[in-house]
Amino acid sequence: MRWVVATANAHKVRELAALLDGLAIELVARPQGVEIPPETGTTFLANARIKARAIAQATGEIALADDSGLEVDALGGDPGVFSARYAGEGASDADNNAKLLGELSGIHGPNRRARFRCALALVAPDGRELTADGRCEGFVLDAECGAGGFGYDPLFQPEGDTRSLAEYAEAEKNAISHRGRAARKLREMLERLGRLTP
Protein backbone atom coordinates (compact mmCIF):
# COMPACT_ATOMS: atom_id res chain seq x y z
CA MET A 1 0.00 0.00 0.00
CA ARG A 2 1.25 3.47 -0.89
CA TRP A 3 0.78 6.70 0.98
CA VAL A 4 1.68 9.94 -0.76
CA VAL A 5 3.42 12.33 1.61
CA ALA A 6 2.12 15.86 1.17
CA THR A 7 5.26 17.78 1.99
CA ALA A 8 8.15 19.36 0.16
CA ASN A 9 10.39 18.90 3.22
CA ALA A 10 12.71 15.92 2.68
CA HIS A 11 13.65 15.92 6.39
CA LYS A 12 10.00 15.36 7.35
CA VAL A 13 9.63 12.53 4.83
CA ARG A 14 12.67 10.75 6.30
CA GLU A 15 11.42 11.19 9.87
CA LEU A 16 7.93 9.96 8.99
CA ALA A 17 9.36 6.92 7.18
CA ALA A 18 11.42 6.03 10.26
CA LEU A 19 8.46 6.58 12.60
CA LEU A 20 6.12 4.41 10.52
CA ASP A 21 8.69 1.70 9.82
CA GLY A 22 7.22 -1.77 10.13
CA LEU A 23 3.81 -0.91 8.72
CA ALA A 24 2.93 -2.51 5.39
CA ILE A 25 3.10 0.81 3.58
CA GLU A 26 5.38 2.61 1.18
CA LEU A 27 5.74 6.34 1.68
CA VAL A 28 6.26 8.15 -1.61
CA ALA A 29 6.85 11.80 -2.36
CA ARG A 30 4.07 13.71 -4.07
CA PRO A 31 4.37 13.44 -7.85
CA GLN A 32 5.99 16.26 -9.77
CA GLY A 33 3.37 18.67 -10.99
CA VAL A 34 1.08 18.07 -8.02
CA GLU A 35 1.26 21.27 -6.03
CA ILE A 36 0.80 21.62 -2.28
CA PRO A 37 -1.93 24.23 -1.73
CA PRO A 38 -1.31 27.37 0.32
CA GLU A 39 -1.39 26.77 4.08
CA THR A 40 -4.24 29.14 4.90
CA GLY A 41 -5.39 27.44 8.11
CA THR A 42 -5.05 29.08 11.51
CA THR A 43 -4.08 25.82 13.24
CA PHE A 44 -1.60 23.03 12.51
CA LEU A 45 -4.46 20.55 12.10
CA ALA A 46 -6.28 22.77 9.62
CA ASN A 47 -3.15 23.08 7.49
CA ALA A 48 -2.43 19.34 7.63
CA ARG A 49 -5.98 18.64 6.45
CA ILE A 50 -5.75 21.19 3.63
CA LYS A 51 -2.62 19.52 2.29
CA ALA A 52 -3.71 15.90 2.73
CA ARG A 53 -7.15 16.46 1.20
CA ALA A 54 -5.67 18.21 -1.83
CA ILE A 55 -3.03 15.53 -2.46
CA ALA A 56 -5.52 12.66 -2.00
CA GLN A 57 -7.89 14.29 -4.47
CA ALA A 58 -5.14 15.05 -7.00
CA THR A 59 -3.52 11.59 -6.89
CA GLY A 60 -6.41 9.28 -6.08
CA GLU A 61 -4.22 7.73 -3.38
CA ILE A 62 -4.08 7.90 0.41
CA ALA A 63 -2.24 11.05 1.46
CA LEU A 64 -0.36 11.78 4.68
CA ALA A 65 0.31 15.39 5.62
CA ASP A 66 2.22 16.90 8.50
CA ASP A 67 2.00 20.46 9.74
CA SER A 68 4.21 21.41 12.61
CA GLY A 69 6.01 24.28 14.21
CA LEU A 70 7.27 26.03 17.29
CA GLU A 71 5.15 28.02 19.73
CA VAL A 72 6.94 30.42 22.08
CA ASP A 73 4.96 31.68 25.07
CA ALA A 74 6.79 35.01 25.31
CA LEU A 75 5.86 35.72 21.68
CA GLY A 76 2.17 34.93 22.14
CA GLY A 77 2.55 31.54 20.46
CA ASP A 78 4.58 32.76 17.49
CA PRO A 79 5.98 31.65 15.14
CA GLY A 80 3.25 28.96 15.29
CA VAL A 81 1.73 28.06 11.93
CA PHE A 82 4.18 30.48 10.30
CA SER A 83 7.24 28.62 11.64
CA ALA A 84 8.57 27.60 8.21
CA ARG A 85 8.22 31.15 6.86
CA TYR A 86 8.77 33.17 10.03
CA ALA A 87 11.43 35.34 8.38
CA GLY A 88 9.41 35.58 5.15
CA GLU A 89 8.48 33.40 2.19
CA GLY A 90 11.43 31.28 1.10
CA ALA A 91 13.27 31.87 4.38
CA SER A 92 16.00 29.39 5.28
CA ASP A 93 16.28 27.64 8.65
CA ALA A 94 19.14 30.02 9.47
CA ASP A 95 16.95 33.04 8.62
CA ASN A 96 14.12 31.79 10.83
CA ASN A 97 16.45 30.97 13.71
CA ALA A 98 18.08 34.39 13.51
CA LYS A 99 14.71 36.13 13.59
CA LEU A 100 13.59 34.05 16.57
CA LEU A 101 16.75 34.91 18.52
CA GLY A 102 16.25 38.57 17.70
CA GLU A 103 12.64 38.52 18.88
CA LEU A 104 13.71 36.91 22.17
CA SER A 105 16.59 39.29 22.81
CA GLY A 106 16.46 40.35 26.47
CA ILE A 107 14.20 37.45 27.46
CA HIS A 108 15.97 34.75 29.45
CA GLY A 109 15.63 31.47 31.31
CA PRO A 110 12.15 30.16 32.13
CA ASN A 111 10.59 33.05 30.20
CA ARG A 112 11.74 31.32 27.00
CA ARG A 113 9.31 28.40 27.43
CA ALA A 114 8.19 26.91 24.13
CA ARG A 115 6.82 23.76 22.56
CA PHE A 116 7.02 21.97 19.25
CA ARG A 117 3.62 20.88 17.96
CA CYS A 118 2.70 18.51 15.14
CA ALA A 119 -0.57 17.56 13.48
CA LEU A 120 -0.84 14.61 11.10
CA ALA A 121 -3.73 14.05 8.71
CA LEU A 122 -4.21 10.79 6.82
CA VAL A 123 -6.84 11.19 4.10
CA ALA A 124 -8.26 8.62 1.67
CA PRO A 125 -9.55 9.65 -1.78
CA ASP A 126 -13.13 8.93 -0.64
CA GLY A 127 -12.78 11.55 2.10
CA ARG A 128 -12.25 9.34 5.15
CA GLU A 129 -9.73 10.83 7.57
CA LEU A 130 -7.63 10.04 10.60
CA THR A 131 -5.80 12.77 12.51
CA ALA A 132 -3.29 12.75 15.34
CA ASP A 133 -1.27 15.36 17.18
CA GLY A 134 1.78 15.54 19.40
CA ARG A 135 3.80 18.07 21.36
CA CYS A 136 7.22 18.39 22.95
CA GLU A 137 7.68 20.94 25.75
CA GLY A 138 10.91 22.81 26.35
CA PHE A 139 12.74 26.12 26.05
CA VAL A 140 14.45 28.24 23.39
CA LEU A 141 18.21 28.45 23.92
CA ASP A 142 20.21 31.70 23.70
CA ALA A 143 22.25 30.37 20.76
CA GLU A 144 22.24 27.45 18.34
CA CYS A 145 23.76 24.22 19.64
CA GLY A 146 24.30 20.94 17.79
CA ALA A 147 24.63 19.96 14.15
CA GLY A 148 21.78 17.47 13.75
CA GLY A 149 18.09 17.85 13.07
CA PHE A 150 16.63 20.72 11.08
CA GLY A 151 14.53 23.83 11.49
CA TYR A 152 14.53 25.14 15.05
CA ASP A 153 16.11 21.97 16.49
CA PRO A 154 19.45 23.68 17.31
CA LEU A 155 17.59 26.27 19.42
CA PHE A 156 15.16 23.96 21.21
CA GLN A 157 16.02 22.31 24.53
CA PRO A 158 13.49 19.65 25.56
CA GLU A 159 12.23 19.98 29.10
CA GLY A 160 14.36 18.06 31.59
CA ASP A 161 17.47 17.94 29.39
CA THR A 162 20.53 20.12 28.91
CA ARG A 163 20.96 19.39 25.19
CA SER A 164 19.31 20.88 22.15
CA LEU A 165 17.18 18.65 19.95
CA ALA A 166 19.93 18.98 17.31
CA GLU A 167 22.26 17.03 19.65
CA TYR A 168 19.96 13.98 19.77
CA ALA A 169 20.50 10.83 17.76
CA GLU A 170 17.67 10.21 15.29
CA ALA A 171 16.06 7.38 17.26
CA GLU A 172 16.37 9.35 20.49
CA LYS A 173 14.72 12.38 18.91
CA ASN A 174 11.91 10.29 17.44
CA ALA A 175 11.18 8.86 20.89
CA ILE A 176 10.30 12.26 22.39
CA SER A 177 9.57 14.60 19.49
CA HIS A 178 6.22 16.13 18.63
CA ARG A 179 6.23 14.27 15.30
CA GLY A 180 7.16 11.00 16.99
CA ARG A 181 4.30 11.31 19.45
CA ALA A 182 1.80 12.15 16.71
CA ALA A 183 2.99 9.22 14.57
CA ARG A 184 2.64 6.79 17.48
CA LYS A 185 -0.94 7.96 18.05
CA LEU A 186 -1.68 7.45 14.36
CA ARG A 187 -0.18 3.93 14.44
CA GLU A 188 -2.30 3.07 17.49
CA MET A 189 -5.47 4.23 15.74
CA LEU A 190 -4.64 2.17 12.66
CA GLU A 191 -3.93 -0.89 14.79
CA ARG A 192 -7.25 -0.49 16.63
CA LEU A 193 -9.05 -0.27 13.32
CA GLY A 194 -7.26 -3.40 12.18
CA ARG A 195 -6.36 -1.98 8.80
CA LEU A 196 -4.02 0.53 7.24
CA THR A 197 -6.57 2.85 5.69
CA PRO A 198 -8.52 5.69 7.29
Task: Write up this protein.
The structure is a single chain. The protein has a six-stranded mixed β-sheet with strand order 2-1-3-4-5-6. Helix content is 30%, strand content 23%. The chain is built from five helices and six strands, in the order βαβαβαβββαα. The mean pLDDT is 93. It is globular. Helix 4 packs across helix 5. The chain is of the alpha/beta class.
Separation, N- and C-terminal Cα atoms? 13 Å
The geometry reads as globular
Which range best describes the helical content: under 10%, 10-25%, 25-40%, 40-55%, 55-70% or over 70%?
25-40%
Radius of gyration: 17 Å
Q: Could you state the order of secondary-structure elements as H and E?
A: EHEHEHEEEHH
The quaternary structure here is single chain
Q: What fraction of the residues are assigned to beta strands by DSSP?
A: 15-25%
Largest sheet descriptor: 6 strands, mixed
Order of strands, main sheet, comes to 2-1-3-4-5-6
Low-confidence segments: none
Indicate the mean pLDDT: 93
Number of strands: 6
Given the structure, what is the number of helices? Answer: 5
Structural class: alpha/beta
